[in-house]
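Good morning C.,

I know you're traveling, so I'll keep this short. The sequence:
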Amino acid sequence: MRLFVFDLDGVIYIGNTLLSGVKQTLESLEKRGEKICFLSNNSTLSRKGYCKKLGKLGLKVREEQLFTSSYLCALYLKNHRKITPEEKVMVIGESGIIQELKKAKIDISRNPEKVRYVVVGMDRKLNFRKLCLAYQAIIKGAEFIATNTDTTYPLEGKTIPASGAIVKALEVSTKKTPIVLGKPYTFGIKTLLKSTGFPSSQTILVGDRLETDIALGNKMGIKTVLVLSGISSRQEVEKAPFSLKPNFVISSLPELLSLNI
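The tokens, ready to paste straight into the viewer:
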């Protein structure tokens, strides 16, 4: 048995559209006895929210299979920062972060005078007031945490700016560097491997971004598969430095089944 770790956006679906052959591929892997988990930088939904979204797309996924940056954020604050009931968190982000923090019994505040941490993720309702409040909190000493620094996000037929654009605005204005939890940083994959009990040598990481998925896998000694259904292109693979070179490149997920991994 091996562990297959999949990204979500650009690998499993784009926007609200399930990519061709994904369901059959995942079912075939499970029939072969492989274990499947998902590691996503996307913080817009909670694990419960992703279960619901994937269910609508025809995939049966359990919460314990999902390691999203929203969930990782709650874990990091709870287990690594040992956040106390008195310490509060300011969020630039969507329902995913808020729901995971509330589930972990972490208090949220918009008062820059009272927050100990500022967590920044994808926020499609970002406005200048939110940026100002986060800026004030960070320059007053709140710790700056980014769920991820992805610069773009794939949708049907286009891409849009992602959380990295928001993180960069605060980084430039506050002159503070955030702690980043998502790929290519190792917190998420180490958490996932510890939870599942699999070593790196029995793990295959499948993603669509050279600078996050493939960089992380190479850093951790994990075999990597780049799917050309999302962000990175074959031309980018050819030009990429060794640290960003995947072990395998496939055009679509069903090709995964025929690889000699």
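Safe travels,
E.
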